[in-house]
Amino acid sequence: MIEDHDSGGEPPSGLRDALMRWLLHDAVDERFLDDVFAGFCDRLRRHGVAVAHATLHLRTNHPQWLGIEILWRTGCRAPRSRNLDYGLFGTEGFRGSPAARIMAGAAMVRQRRGETGNEAHPEVAGLMAVEGLTDFVAWPLRYTLGKRHMAAFASDRPGGFIPAEVELLAELLPALAVVTEVRHKNRLTRLLLDTYVGPHAGEMILNGATRRGSGVTVEAAIMVVDLRGFTRISELWPRDDVIALLNDYFDAVCCPVERNGGEILKFIGDGLLAIFPLDGPDVGGATLRAAGQARLAMRDLNAARDAAGQEPLGYGIGVHAGAVMYGNIGSRTRLDFTIIGPAVNVAARLEGLTKELDTDVLVSGAFAALPGVSSSLTCLGRFPLRGVGKKLAVYALAGGK
């Protein structure tokens, strides 16, 4: 319970202007939305407004999550965030909830402790009972272009919020919306860049690497993965089945790459291009672990397909190490942040060679020379590769076909 305003008197004179000034001026250096929201709620509480629990519910453009909830509680050191599943809207708990009513167009939703009837929602009542709350009020948080999110505040004072506090919160919401929208869109920008170009490339783009031809030369292990027989599958199978197959396949091969520090630069139809920058002591080992874990994941996927009466999926992985140009390539108005160079071609040729040699993972001699990887490899000899001037030493990863 608050001490300086537990009598339920009027909020201090000038509090609205002070909080508006903090939101629009003083909070400009707060980078993260979570910190802005926590700072706002802390100031409300400190000046006697009986806010004990508050949440922001924001829609996102994440491939896995529908949205995010940011929770502030009095006495907590930092706000807590949790992701909201895409299936949320179809759940029993969402139906009739304050969020559902706000998204459907309600201007405000309020529920006091002990209220019953159609307007009372059981999950809100449960929250109030567990947290010792007495009053709950939610409003739409209006962003540009008609986007509606939700802000909710709950009181722990006997009797709940007084009218002046509800009026104060409602008056401050437009400013809170302006300030949080900027940071929410910054977060979405980073999220979309991470999703479509990868975290390292996304970071470089955000730091200004947006000019055509800009980039750096890096030493890296390059991995090319390709699915076999996809043309036939795509011609014979229904579209939705093909998309589901590709998603299962990419889950199997991509998760090990990211788990071991690699970055997926692009998907090319049924193939992918990834790099592991050689900036650490065990990058070669990490690359081989990624390839080995992808192999195990593909075995599991094929076992599930066999149990369902489906054909197994063939694939090949080629790995090389060398210098690549990492940067912006494309037209004046449409750029691709990728890697180019002879080393990329060698990795692609090695992937193609896996089919000829009836194995799944092949690496070059240059990669095999990296520290700590040779014990996991078997030399298969020297082979000519199209576009490569001389025969190349080729190694297979142990445990393959």
Mean pLDDT: 90
SSE order in H/E notation? HHEEEHEHEEHHEHHEEHEEHEHEE
Structural class: alpha+beta
DSSP summary: helix tally: 11
- Please state the overall shape, judged from the principal axes of the Cα atoms: elongated
- Ranges where pLDDT stays below 50 over 5 or more residues in a row are 1-7
The portion of residues assigned to helices is 25-40%
C-alpha Rg (nearest Å):
28 Å
CATH class of the largest domain: Alpha Beta
The largest pleated sheet is described as: 8 strands, mixed
At the fold tier of CATH, the topology name of the largest domain is Alpha-Beta Plaits
Q: What would CATH call the architecture of the largest domain?
A: 2-Layer Sandwich
Note the beta-strand portion: 25-35%
Number of domains: 2
CATH superfamily of the largest domain: Nucleotide cyclase, GGDEF domain
